[in-house]
Design a protein that fits this description.
single chain, OB fold (Dihydrolipoamide Acetyltransferase, E2P), Phenylalanyl-tRNA Synthetase, Chain B, domain 3, 6 domains
């Protein structure tokens, strides 16, 4: 919200000389957020000039210029720049005439840009200044011709300071208004907040305009909402007023154009500008209809699903059953709270105007604006809540301005529908402010603070009964009242006391384990990244299944990027994209990991959009079940990628390239962090290198994979041929996590070490052989490691020789060589039964 200070000063006392920074500081104290300061960025001398004469001079480039003589000071007086009263000025525009009053920027002036003005030679003349257009002054977008003051209804003496005359000396402060403070989207609301912050006298503009009275002959209006949505009817307040005989050709006053411009709204025409001006002033959006274009009375209703309607921007739209429409006898003439229709808009031929100020269901307006992609200043206010009682004052204020500025005549009365229920009282218990904020506040302080915001306060047994003001729909419970007392009393009074967490609170088991996983991977040298959860069909097909079978994906209804309109089935595309970007910036040795959700819909199941319940309503079990039915399975995965060198070359150390060993080491780290045994077995994945792919299992169930990308896939992503990756279903792993790992005693008796070489078929996984040896050797086997995989001379073709290093130890004695050998042979025997392994001679 941009607030011109001259406008603010009309409704709250500003000490002369108050700076924008001081206004910002005061408003920050009561919870509004400082954004920016806006000015017209003009430096004088800029004055009113009179065109005395001009000569049109065609140029060789085909352009015709005017060599003008312009009076910029009264006869006999020195001009504001110290020069003569008459200046010679070269001008390229041709829309002005002799005798016109114009705005002249004299040498030394600075226009927005910045664009300094100086006497300069051009087209064979010394141009001693410039005649300005509205755009050059920052008043509008019109750059086709000179700004003639007569078009603004201004006739000021020559030499008058044009900056002050046009209101260009004003300044606006910009505020960020939080969603719960919709009343601050108005000069009225900000002025009230400034009064709260400084104690300055607030003059409510509502009390400066006499509200419209309902008349028997007022314009006919009917609210016809037979099936209210969420229990809220379309409109509970509707006010109209008629102004006849307006002159739409009259110019918008310069002061109004300047204020609208500073507030961020472009001047369009006098009638439209007036409605925008009152919206900014009071916070009540206004809509004006060409009365002569209306057919019959107005009926407010919900739209029929699929009903067509053309908005002011000329676009044909298909309406939703939740949309609220304003209709006459022909059908919809306005999408309520969002945008009017083209058939009844105020235009250049409008002479009679119907003014409308309504209060609409905020949720319906918010959804309509988003559904039709029509954000507007009106919708921004309606969806946050507008004072439902202000409509009669707002239409009266618009009528007053149309009478004063457009020469119209207002009808005596208007139509008023007011069915807004009274606000329910809120009980604020004694001592509740101190319990919530830690601020010790007396009853008088609490009473005065709540009275200051406009509440009606009654002392009752046990506390205060407070009826919030109509313009504060955000005040719904005692917590909001406590916030009002705190902010008006000063946030600095809240003590900085660290609360003690109740026992039993903190991270959940799953959160603690997930944090340990991230810590373990980070300690191992990998960097955590966060990628967007969006993917395309190719990525989901490539990484979403291990065997390349068709997969289902969740498609976004309103994707940010149409090339990535699906929700991801794997974390790997995000990691690959991150690796590609980092390598393009010179970071070639990378270890990256990410934890995040993937989306795995069941093929053939409907995951379409569901209607969301309103936050103020407790959804039923059926509604929750319907919402849950629209959510596909979303397990949390962890994935990692390694590329480049895992160990860089240095004195005494050769470089070691990253590969599947790094991925499997990361799997081991995850298993240790989680406290789960992750089994690594030979696997396959259509995006990974055959023979360099491992399937990861927990309790016999597959939970992920690790391996190296196919070189062709890596090359397509502009990565080296060797890219190691892993991906695990972390939720599934956590299910088997050991909450309290068992500690094993350290053996105190000597260990017995032996080697075992077994010849087995080349296609038999070493892990299967090792598992058989471990099981057969029994409890005396303390550790087993594969130390050699030999496939050359001395080993039959189609076979391999696996050598394991075994370590045996007993907890209660020193083992003999015979005992260790017996255990080793028992392991070899079981491996022979299961895999056909034979002890190598």
């Amino acid at each position: 919200m941009r607030v011109p200070l001259s406008w603010l000063a009309e409704y709250v006392e500003l000490v002369p000389g108050t700076t924008p920074e001081q206004v910002h500081a005061a408003l920050v104290e009561v919870g509004l957020e400082e954004e920016d300061v806006h000015t017209f960025d003009l430096v004088g001398p800029i004055v009113v000039g009179e065109v005395l004469e001009f000569v049109e001079e065609p140029q060789s480039n085909g352009k015709t210029i005017r060599w003008c003589q312009v009076r910029v000071a009264p006869d006999g007086e020195t001009a504001a720049d110290g020069g003569e009263a008459v200046h010679g000025i070269v001008c390229g525009a041709r829309n002005f005439f002799v005798g016109d009053k114009v705005v002249v920027t004299l040498p030394g002036a600075v226009l927005p840009g910045p664009f300094p003005i100086a006497a300069r030679k051009t087209y064979g003349h010394v141009s001693d200044g410039m005649i300005a257009s509205a755009r050059e002054l920052g008043l509008g977008e019109d750059h086709d011709g000179i700004l003639r003051l007569s078009t603004l209804g201004i006739d000021a003496p020559v030499g008058t300071d044009a900056i002050k005359l046009l209101g260009l000396d004003d300044t606006a402060v910009e505020l960020n208004v939080t969603p719960d403070r919709g009343y601050a989207f108005s000069i009225r609301g900000v002025a009230r907040e400034y009064a709260h912050a400084t104690g300055a006298v607030f003059r409510d503009p509502v009390h400066q305009t006499e509200a419209t009275d309902a008349a028997a002959g007022g314009f006919p209006v009917v609210i016809d909402d037979q099936a209210p949505i969420r229990g809220n009817i379309a409109s509970q307040a509707f006010a109209t007023r008629i102004v006849r005989g307006v002159d739409p050709s009259r110019p918008t006053p310069a002061w109004m154009i300047a204020r609208l411009k500073l507030a961020g709204i472009r001047s369009l025409s006098l009638l439209v500008d007036i409605t925008n001006y009152v919206m900014l002033e009071l916070g009540q959006p206004i809509h004006g209809y060409d009365l002569d274009a209306l057919r019959g009375g107005i009926v407010v209703r919900r739209a029929t699903a699929g009903e067509p309607f053309t908005t002011l921007d000329g676009k044909a739209r298909t309406l939703h059953a939740e949309d609220i429409v304003v209709t006459d006898d022909r059908g919809p003439i306005g999408l309520a709270g969002v945008m009017g229709g083209a058939e009844t808009e105020m235009g250049d031929t409008t002479t009679n105007v119907l003014i409308e100020a309504a209060h609409w269901d905020p949720v319906s307006i918010a959804r309509s604006a988003r559904r039709h992609k029509l954000p507007s200043e009106a919708a921004k206010r309606y969806e946050r809540g507008v004072d439902p009682t202000i409509g009669p004052v707002a239409v009266a204020r618009v009528a007053q301005l149309m009478v004063d500025l457009a020469g119209g005549t207002a009808d005596d009365g208007g139509s008023i529908i007011q069915t807004v229920p009274e606000r329910a009282a809120i009980l604020l218990p004694d001592g509740y402010v101190e319990r919530v904020t830690g601020i010790s506040s007396s009853d008088d302080e609490v009473h005065d603070a709540l009275a200051e915001i406009g509440g009606t306060i009654t002392r009752v047994e046990g506390g205060f009964s407070v009826v919030p003001p109509a313009w504060r729909p955000d005040l719904t419970g005692p917590e909001e009242l406590v916030e009002e007392v705190a902010r008006l009393g000063g946030y600095e009074r809240i003590p900085s006391v660290l609360p003690v967490a109740p026992p039993g609170r903190g991270l959940t088991r799953s959160q603690r384990i997930r944090r340990r996983v991230s810590d373990a991977l980070a300690v191992g040298g990998a960097t955590e990244v966060l990628s967007f959860p969006f993917a395309n069909e190719a990525d989901n097909a490539l990484y979403g299944s291990a065997d390349g079978s068709p997969v289902a994906s969740v498609k976004l209804a309103n994707a940010l990027d149409t090339t990535n309109a699906l929700l991801r089935r794997s974390l790997l595309p995000g990691l690959i994209g991150a690796a590609k970007r980092n390598r393009s910036r010179g970071l070639v040795d990378l270890g990256l990991f990410e934890q995040g959700l993937v989306f795995l819909p069941v093929a053939g199941r409907d995951y379409g959009t569901r209607e969301l319940p309103v936050g103020a309503e407790l959804p039923s079990d059926e509604a929750l079940a319907e919402l849950n039915a629209g959510i596909p399975p979303q397990p949390r995965h962890v994935a990692a990628l390694f590329v480049g060198e895992s160990i860089t070359k240095q004195p005494g150390q050769v470089a070691v390239a990253a590969g599947i060993v790094d991925a499997l080491d990361a799997v081991r780290r995850i298993g240790l962090a989680v406290g789960a045994e992750i089994e690594v077995v030979q696997g396959s994945h259509h995006a990974l290198h055959p023979g360099r792919t491992a399937e990861l299992r927990v309790a016999g169930a597959a939970v992920g994979f690790a391996g190296e990308l196919l070189p062709a896939i890596a090359e397509e992503a502009d990565l080296p041929r060797v890219v190691a990756v892993l991906e695990l279903d972390l939720d599934a792993v956590i299910e088997h996590a050991i909450v309290q790992p068992e500690a094993h005693a350290i053996g105190t008796f000597p260990a017995a070490t032996q080697d075992l070489s077994l010849v087995v078929g080349a296609d038999v996984p070493a892990a299967v052989v090792a598992a058989s040896v471990v099981e057969g050797a029994g409890e005396l086997l303390e550790a087993l490691h594969l130390v050699d995989d030999y496939r050359s001379q001395g080993v039959p073709e189609g076979s391999k020789s696996l050598t394991f290093a075994l370590r045996f130890r007993a907890a209660d004695r020193t083992l003999t060589a015979a005992e260790a050998s017996e255990a080793k042979l028992a392991g070899a025997a079981l491996a022979g039964e299961r895999t056909g392994a034979a002890i190598r001679d």
